[in-house]
Design goal:
heterotrimer, A mainly alpha (834), B alpha+beta (286), C mainly alpha (86), B: 286 residues, 5-stranded mixed sheet, 37% helix, disordered N terminus, C: 86 residues, mainly alpha, 3 helices, 83% helix, flat
């Protein structure tokens, strides 16, 4: 696919245009659409095309940072609208539904579209550099994650123009979230936007986990990883499982809203509680998901600017690990006032207190690191120091909420609002520190120091003026616009603080923008005592990051020559050939397809939001499907070359290649997705009365036949793989084709069963039994359909002789298909027999 | 309204009365318990916060870089080194132990109080039992005699047990003046109780975002003298079935009257599900 | 050929177990025993498919642990949530 790429334009700048700006101006004007689709060298940074095409982790990181700052402004404006409304204790500015929308979308944007992606901007940029990787394991998938993130945010914005956006709070409690209470299309769009965001997050998690586990430089064992990288590793592990539970919740909610299932509204079942369980099972790990990167940034900056290595580093890591594990066992502390029983409240009170202790350790570790240090109060340090300070207040006030009796009263008040803002915005504060810390690395220029420090002053005062009065006025009910008149002065103070904080954020953004042109130039490492590998390369780093193969084998960072045998004693740091071009092969860094898939997803989900209302929506859905199919095909057909590093640390996943590990990690998240669906079914059935529950299918025979079909198809895929390994082309084709036919047979059999039920008057919304049956087996059928689409892609290629030398695609498909089989092995007895 | 606001008044209300309560076995109300616990948590929390933050700021100041600070005083981190820590594990362990002891002791104490509160209103004092139902955007109270109203009237100094549910979406019922709160969940019941100890008019409010009228979902709670209450209650008893519908906005139906009033456990029970006409009323109201 | 033979034997076992699950339902066992038996058969089938067809037995053990963590996560949610309303 590379025959007509404009080589001569780009040979001169293997760093992808970071530094030789003048050389390449004009190159983009000559490029044609054809080149846009076929090039695998990147256009320079000034070109818009570069940003649409890039798959490079540093570019994607910048895209994440810029986009998330945009959402910060969006969410911030909503916050200030609230603060203006709260200047007086009566309703003044916003309408009731307007206020509810403001509250809801402010929360959603700040948590999902700002805080996490902002942290992942740094993760994208810094983590590969810190571990010594040229890029993430799946660069195109990374670009796709970004575009889905961006377009999910665009979708959220569109929701305001569809009869109003979601107005049930960021926690989206049921059954307020279903159409009978919230009928506008905009609400559905919000749910779908979040769904799209979750898809993006899941792909990101798979990508980062594979990268972090398998692409570390030699000598960089897991325990030796820098702390920011550690925080990201644990964050993505939590994301993988937590977001799968949210995905289940959102799929069910979308189905309740669009297809008319009755999970959350059914009579005689605890549907409302089901939502709280699913949501908080995700929601509590999410707290740590957004805070951990900030913690990692604190650790990095504390070490650099105190000139001391972290005190109790191993304990710090262990503490984070404990929190990450335990975060999945505390969710019911958000439900102390519901009808859950005292035993479970007790258990969750204990786990909640347990999880606060590792944080004590981390805070002390950071504080003790300052002792005997040589502390330089630079802007990044001021921000992370300030972040830690307010986090301590957030932590202490959180202990109040852990005591169930206090939670009984504090719930739903500004105590909670103040507490989680002290925690969350402490994270933001530290990440602003991270922004200043890595700014010279990313841009090659220093931010304006004086403005930075002044901004911190304004930020810190504004922060505390905004949130501290909320503790004092804690008796204000949360999410209302009228409050007891006696509390007015405190709310007015908070509003003043809110505007100060808003201005401080704008100054941060302005500083970054201004310094792009006027900042003093920085070569490599402007920070004395910085240790991590990103500072050992130029600022900004060249396209493929390192002047050689990074290795810690000698005990400190070296860059070895490309061939491991001829390793030179390259010394540390910047020495090395910067214009180094990797030998006979080169990695790809550009693909147009992630962007197109993102656009298609936007159109598809927008269509889906109003599909039951007719109008333009069904057409949009179809356009989205067609465009998506074409883009995915393009993505699949594109030859995109990525090399796995030949040597490095891969614990604990040695002996399995990146692609296969990626598939397995994805399947682990799918286990949680189906687990949450099955869990919802079990929960509703227990609430209904286990044995009173009527099974929807009348007899198990159609289900049994489908079990036979799926088992046989699994067997066929196994045979197909065996054939491929033995270079038997026709054996491979026969195996794949039989699987395809069996999969179609499965769907036909299911279709007959469903049509019969439909004629008997049993359909999705008939009752809760039917809802769970159709939706859970429907999700499984969707997995079957996706599998068949992949088969339709594989079979023609197999006929052309593919997969005989490299049977990995068949093997990966097999992993997925067997998984779909295994899921059915449980759905069949649960929904047909017992 | 005799309601006071703000942290300072909260702390000021921690007095010898609460110390007695610490030792007392039962008969505490949510009100007592909350003020006591909250006061103690607040004092300890503030103390811990001041100590930790002061220590942090002090060290940051003490070890700031000065022109005469010795650069080579000790080993400093090098670019490109393998990440490693510096010692100090012992100090860390001690700090952690201290904070763990404080936190666990506090929570254990809070737990003992919780068990006490969860035991419900003392049966010996013959608590008044009221069914509470949240409906967008008002509260319906139903008395044992079947009387239904939008204003909660309760006698002074007699425990009141509230059994809550919702007719439509997720609500949370709270009377801030009595530090009382419980979720009202469709299809579920929750229970809480309080001891009104001062006559007057208080406010009950919704604490879970429940739709456009959430901010205005309030109702009066009137604490009356026992005699006055008895008189009022007797009157409602005689007119029960004839006029109750006039006192509500018509959407409340008293269909779950008799059976529910016997249940006093904290376990949730499933209602038979909201009556169809009630759902209809809820949906048409938006 | 041995691997193909192994795969075939497993296929036959899976087929048999699926039939047995439906047979259990009609055997007139007590509900609890039947449910336990049916679910046990499902678990065995799942282990066979994962272990042999997905080659999990031959991959690094850490991959199995990743899958088990996912499973434990789902089980924690299911059981704790269901227990909370009993």
């Amino acid at each position: 696919m590379t025959e007509d790429q404009p080589r001569d334009d780009h040979e001169a700048q293997p760093d992808g245009g970071h530094t030789h700006r003048s050389l390449t101006e004009g190159a983009t004007t000559t490029s044609t659409l054809r080149e846009f689709f076929t090039r695998d060298h990147l256009p320079p940074m000034e070109s818009v095309q570069r940003w649409l095409l890039t798959t490079n982790h540093k570019d994607v990181g910048i895209l994440y940072l810029v986009t998330s700052l945009f959402f910060l402004v969006f969410g911030g404006v909503l916050a200030l609208l609230m603060r203006i409304e709260l200047l007086t204790p009566v309703n003044s500015v916003l309408s009731a539904t307007g206020y509810n929308q403001t509250v809801s979308i402010h929360g959603l944007i700040m948590i999902f579209w700002f805080l996490s992606p902002f942290a992942f901007g740094f993760a994208n940029y810094v983590v590969p550099l810190q571990i010594g990787a040229k890029d993430l394991a799946f660069p195109r998938l990374n670009a796709l994650s970004y575009w889905l993130y961006l377009f999910s945010g665009v979708l959220l914005g569109i929701s305001f123009f569809q009869g109003g956006s979601f107005e049930g709070g960021w926690t989206m409690y049921a059954p307020l979230n279903v159409p009978s209470y919230m009928p506008n299309i905009g609400s559905t769009t919000t749910v779908l936007a979040l769904l799209l965001f979750v898809i993006s997050v899941t792909m990101s998690s798979v990508n980062f986990l594979t990268t972090l586990h398998r692409m570390r430089a030699k000598g960089l064992t897991l325990l030796r990883m820098p702390l920011f990288t550690w925080s990201i590793l644990l964050t993505v592990w939590m994301m993988l499982f937590a977001f799968a539970a949210l995905l289940a919740a959102l799929l069910i909610l979308s189905s309740d809203r669009i297809l008319g299932t009755t999970y959350f509204t059914a009579e005689g079942t605890p549907g409302s509680l089901l939502w709280t369980h699913l949501f908080w099972f995700f929601g509590h790990p999410e707290v740590y998901i957004v805070f951990f990167p900030a913690l990692g940034a604190m650790a990095e900056t504390f070490q650099t600017f105190t000139g001391r290595r972290l005190v109790g580093r191993k304990w710090f890591i262990l503490a984070m690990l404990l929190v990450a594990l335990q975060s999945f066992l505390v969710w019911m502390h958000h439900m102390f006032l519901t009808s859950i029983n005292l035993e479970i409240k007790t258990l969750f009170m204990a786990t909640t207190i347990g999880i606060s202790l590792p944080f004590d350790l981390m805070v002390f570790s950071l504080i003790y690191t300052m002792v005997k240090g040589r502390i330089r109060f630079t802007t990044p340090f001021l921000f992370t120091f300030g972040g830690l300070l307010v986090f301590i207040i957030g932590g202490i006030t959180g202990v109040f909420l852990g005591a169930v009796v206090l939670d009984y009263q504090l719930r739903g008040t500004y105590w909670v609002v103040a507490h989680f803002h002290y925690v969350m915005v402490a994270g933001v504060t530290a990440l602003i520190g991270a922004l200043f810390y890595w700014y010279p690395k990313i841009t090659g220029r220093m931010y304006n120091r004086r403005l930075g420090k002044a901004t911190f002053g304004l930020f810190f005062v504004g922060f505390n003026l905004l949130y501290f009065p909320m503790f004092i006025a804690w008796e204000t009910p949360r999410r209302v616009f009228d409050y007891p008149a006696g509390l007015t002065p405190w709310h007015q103070l908070a509003t003043i603080g809110g505007f100060m904080l808003g201005v401080a954020f704008l100054l941060v953004i302005w500083n970054c923008y201004w310094s792009l042109w006027h900042g003093e130039k920085v070569e490599g490492n402007p920070w004395e005592y910085a240790t991590t590998a990103e500072w050992a390369v130029p600022s900004p780093p060249p396209l493929e990051n390192f002047p050689g193969v990074p290795s810690y084998d000698s005990g400190s960072l070296d860059f070895l020559d490309e061939t491991p045998e001829a390793s030179t004693d390259g010394g540390t740091a910047v020495a090395g050939d910067q214009t180094h071009e990797s030998g006979d092969h080169h990695d790809s860094h550009a693909s147009p397809w992630p962007f197109f898939i993102g656009v298609a997803a936007l159109v598809f989900f927008l269509g889906l939001s109003g599909i039951s209302t007719g109008g333009i929506y069904p057409a949009l859905t179809i356009v989205g499907v067609v465009f998506g199919a074409v883009s995915l095909l393009g993505f699949g057909m594109e030859s995109f070359s990525v090399t796995e590093p030949e040597l490095g640390e891969r614990w604990p996943f040695e002996g399995i290649e990146n692609g296969k590990l990626g598939v397995w990690i994805f399947l682990a998240s799918d286990v949680v997705l189906f687990g949450a669906f099955i869990g919802s079914y079990v929960f509703l059935r227990v609430g209904y009365g286990w044995t009173d529950w009527q099974l929807v299918p009348h007899d198990p025979i159609p289900g049994l036949i489908n079990t036979y079909i799926l088992l046989t198809s699994s067997f066929c895929i196994v045979l197909a793989l065996v054939a491929a390994e033995k270079n038997s082309r026709w054996g491979l084709i026969a195996g794949l084709s039989t699987t395809l036919l069996l999969g179609v047979g499965f769907l036909v059999n299911k279709g007959i069963e469903w049509v019969e039920l439909f004629h008997e008057g049993i359909w999705l919304s008939s009752n809760v039994q039917a809802s769970t049956f159709f939706l859970t087996t429907g999700l499984h059928a969707l997995h079957v359909i996706l599998g068949l689409l992949i088969l339709l892609f594989l079979i023609p290629r197999a006929i052309n002789g593919a997969y005989l030398d490299d049977e990995r695609p068949v093997e990966y498909f097999g992993l997925y298909w067997h998984f779909v089989d295994i899921v059915w092995l449980f759905l069949f007895p649960l929904f047909y027999i017992i | 309204m005799s309601v006071t606001y703000g942290l300072t008044t909260r702390v000021a209300t921690v007095n010898s009365h609460h110390i007695e309560l610490l030792l007392q076995a039962n008969g505490r109300t949510m009100n007592d318990v909350f003020s006591m616990l909250f006061g103690v948590f607040l004092i300890l929390g503030t103390a811990v916060g001041i100590v930790v933050i002061s220590y942090m700021v002090y060290n940051a100041y003490k070890y700031r870089e000065t022109p005469d600070s010795e650069v080579a005083e000790r080993e400093r981190p090098q670019l490109g080194e393998l990440p490693q820590g510096s010692g100090g594990g012992k100090k860390l362990a001690i700090s952690l132990t201290i904070s763990a002891v404080i936190v666990i002791a506090l929570i254990a104490w809070a737990y003992i109080v919780l068990v006490d509160v969860e035991a419900g209103a003392p049966e010996s004092e013959d608590p008044l039992e009221v069914q509470v139902e949240g409906i967008q955007f008002s509260w319906q109270y139903e008395y044992p005699n079947g009387h239904t109203t939008n204003t909660l009237r309760v006698p002074e100094d007699r425990p009141v047990t509230l059994i809550l549910t919702s007719g439509d979406v997720f609500h949370t019922f709270g009377i801030p003046a009595y530090d009382l709160k419980a979720d009202a969940i469709p299809g579920q019941t929750t229970e809480t109780w309080f001891r009104p100890n001062e006559t007057g008019t208080y406010e009950a409010q919704c604490f879970e975002l429940c739709g456009s009228g959430h901010s205005a979902m309030e109702s009066d709670v009137i604490v009356m003298e026992q005699e006055e209450f008895d008189q009022w209650y007797a009157e409602t008893g005689s007119e029960t079935n004839a006029t109750t519908n006039n006192t509500t906005d018509g959407s409340a139906t008293n269909n779950s009257t008799a059976n529910d009033s016997t249940a006093t456990t904290t376990e949730n029970r499933l209602l038979d599900g909201p009556a169809p006409e009630r759902q209809l009323a809820a949906t048409t109201r938006q | 050929m041995t691997s193909t033979k192994l795969y075939t034997v497993i296929y036959v076992v899976l087929f048999g177990f699926a039939t047995a699950q439906v047979a259990l339902e009609f055997m007139g066992l007590s509900y609890a025993v039947a449910v336990a038996g049916i679910l046990l058969l499902s678990v065995i089938k799942a282990v066979l498919v994962a272990g042999y067809y997905q080659h999990l037995l031959y991959e690094p053990r850490s991959v199995t642990y990743v899958m088990i963590s996912g499973l434990l996560t789902a089980i924690a949610l299911t059981f704790a949530a269901s227990y909370s309303i009993t």
